[in-house]
Amino acid sequence: MNISALLVMDLQRAIVDRVSDLDPGYTRRLARAVAAAREAGVPVVYVVVGFRVGRPEARSSAMFGALPEGAFADGDPGAVIHADVAPRPGEAVVTKKRVSAFAGSDLSLVLRGGGIGHLVLAGLATSGVVLSTLRQAADLDYRLTVLADGCADTDPEVHRVLTEKVFPRQAGVTTVDAWIASLS
């Protein structure tokens, strides 16, 4: 299983809005990675957080239970994937119920079905979905790469520590530009 996939995680408008002031070029940079993946034939898999009406699966979570009614449910404009990186028809969109891309989702089935053994991680936030997904994916024996500038966090120091000190223990860490160049 040497097939790679680019995971674009939690790039929903309400989440992007929280970090866009810190890095205004973030979604355009990530859009370049998505375009390069498509051109190279690397599957792009989108992961979003989403809840049923009434959010019964969120009530037991300290993080998600505090969200306002209707947040990340059908019809919430903040739950829509940002237009800069929106999926094309036929690209997988996986809905998760917790922080990790694997928690409460069918991501494992999508990856196994595609013969994918190497995950390239990008998303918001570095200390949330990226960290949780990296840890779980490492335990599931996926090969991992993190696009350091394809991730962002509301706390730049936390982002730096994770990408420079924590993630390299379990993943290759690179930049969007370097990863794009490696696809050639």
Automatic annotation (TrEMBL):
Residues annotated as signal peptide: none
GO molecular function: hydrolase activity
CDD domains assigned to the protein according to its UniProt record, in alphabetical order: cysteine_hydrolases (cd00431)
The keyword Signal is annotated on this UniProt entry: no
Keyword tags: Hydrolase
Residue ranges occupied by any Isochorismatase-like domain in the UniProt entry: 4-177
Domain of life: Bacteria
Keyword Hydrolase on entry: yes
Protein name as annotated: Cysteine hydrolase
Organism of derivation: Streptomyces pyxinicus
